[in-house]
Input
Amino acid sequence: MRWALAQKIARGLSFPAVRWNSPTQAMDDEARWATARRLLHDYTLKSEDRFASLLLLLYAQWPAAISRPTVDHIEESDGAVRIRFGAVPVDLPGPVAELALHQVAVRRSHAVQARTDSPWIFPGGQPGCPISVWAMGKRLRKHGIRLAESRSTALFQLATELPAAVLARTLGIDITVAVTWQRATAGDWASYAAAVSRRLPENQ
Output
């Protein structure tokens, strides 16, 4: 499209915008998990980079979403560590929880020592501001993560396991996007719910 406009051969033409939020690239779930395992156990990498990368690989968080959380978005209670992307917090598994708590401790320690006044989990170069989306994306790509493909793979897998409403509330995505992804996985939770409601009491 840009090339055609530059060559002045697309003048007078209109192209309707089509919004599509389903998979756009070939997905390789095995490669995704292999990358996640490497980041979980490669202690030569910065813990903040490992944590940010895992938020994309495991929870389908785009760089724009990864850069926004503050230390208050991560909570520890009743022996569990949770992070809030949307309305409902998500429980983090042990190794990821350790990275999350470490990052919170580092940020709060820096604040106490007056090294930074930033509440952001991933602070940016400008005081008081989170890391930019561009910078976050660059850091993730540096570790071999293909952003769009990895997020598509994660969303595709999560959409096969969770109802669209739960997916939207936990990941912080729009409900229409969650429904679109669920349809792409051929998951039909509405039919499932209807089937359950029709069951006889003794068969429930």
